[in-house]
Amino acid sequence: MEERIKSIYNECWKIYKQYLETRDMAEWNRNMLQVKERYGGKPDVVNLLLWHSINVQALHDRKEE
């Protein structure tokens, strides 16, 4: 189980870094859905993606100001 969480976290980190390079929210959303599907949409992956999404959305909103 610990390896699964580590793997999910690493995927989240990867798509987060991609977002920082492109600032493309649509790309973030597509990548996030791919990660969710890759790990079966189970609560552990959904919760981690939501946690990251809150931060990405906050960054995106700041950029829009």
Features:
65 residues; elongated
Could you walk me through the main structural features you see in this protein, from its secondary elements to its overall organization?
The protein has 65 residues and is an all-alpha fold. It has 3 helices and no strands. It has helices at 2-22, 25-38, 43-64. The radius of gyration is 12 Å and the shape is elongated. The chain starts with a helix and ends with a helix. 18% of the residues are buried. The mean pLDDT is 89.
Explain the layout of strands and helices:
Blueprint: H1 2-22, H2 25-38, H3 43-64
Helix pairs in contact: 1-2, 1-3, 2-3
Task: State the major sheet.
Answer: none
Helix content: over 70%
* Fraction of residues in β-strands: under 5%
Count the strands? 0
Extract low-pLDDT stretches. Answer: none
What is the terminal-to-terminal distance? 41 Å
Provide a short characterization of the protein structure.
This protein has helices spanning 2-22, 25-38, 43-64. Helices cover 88% and strands 0% of the residues.
